[in-house]
Write a structure and sequence with these properties.
The protein is α+β, with helices and mostly antiparallel strands. It contains 7 helices and 5 strands, in the order E-E-H-E-E-E-H-H-H-H-H-H. Helix content is 50%, strand content 21%. It has a 5-stranded antiparallel sheet with strand order 2-1-5-4-3, with helices on both faces. It is a lipid-anchor.
């Protein structure tokens, strides 16, 4: 999972073209000579998609192996995240909303007409922090922890099933199980053993 670029733009009735106010990128996974071209493509896609997104809407546009997540606010502030296909859409939009809120609170951007005139440190930090969505996003972290727990439980159940004979002996010797429970266990095991689905 990788975020390539976060771009903050201004676009509205008074701007015929989208203006890139600020951009942060992490192109370290590409060769040195490829990086300038990739950055230009991220900027081009961001501007193009922002122009074609109605105000107040969010959308994700796929191009080859990458998604461009975009949100255009009614006040003319827009933002995009260019990330690979594996990057969770929900996390991308949480990041977009956070960055746009911080940007509009800290920066006077409404009259800016110069390309990449604003250096916005929180965006530079966010592209580092959000490379691993589970570290930056609590819900994704919880989901990953649940997945890990589920894997551990499956492994535990599988290891118990591998020792089936010992489990049978434990059931037979148990004083805490009633005779009826022991018979139910044996009957269920017998029933399940005859009905193997391939």
């Amino acid at each position: 999972m990788k975020i390539l670029a976060i771009t903050m733009l201004r676009y509205g009735a008074d701007t015929p073209e989208a203006i890139v106010l600020s951009q942060a990128s992490d192109l370290s996974s590409f060769g040195f000579f490829q990086r300038a071209g990739i950055k230009e493509m991220c900027t081009f896609f961001s501007k193009t998609i922002v122009k074609r997104t109605p105000a107040g809407q969010r959308q994700t546009v796929q191009h080859e192996d990458y998604n461009v997540h975009v949100y255009v606010r009614h006040d003319g502030l827009a933002a995009t995240i260019t990330a690979d296909m594996e990057y969770p859409m929900r996390v991308a939009f949480v990041l977009l909303m956070n960055m746009m809120d911080q940007f509009s609170e800290q920066i006077q951007w409404q009259a800016e007409t110069r390309e990449e005139a604003i250096v916005f440190a929180p965006m530079q930090q966010a592209i580092v922090d959000y490379q691993d969505p589970a570290k930056a996003d609590k819900i994704t972290k919880i989901q990953r922890d649940l997945d890990d727990t589920t894997n551990v439980l499956h492994k535990t159940i599988e290891s118990v099933l591998e020792r089936g004979v010992k489990l049978d002996d434990l059931v037979d010797r148990s004083d805490s199980l009633s005779r009826q429970s022991k018979m139910f266990y044996k009957q269920a095991k017998k029933t399940n053993s005859c009905c193997v689905v391939m």
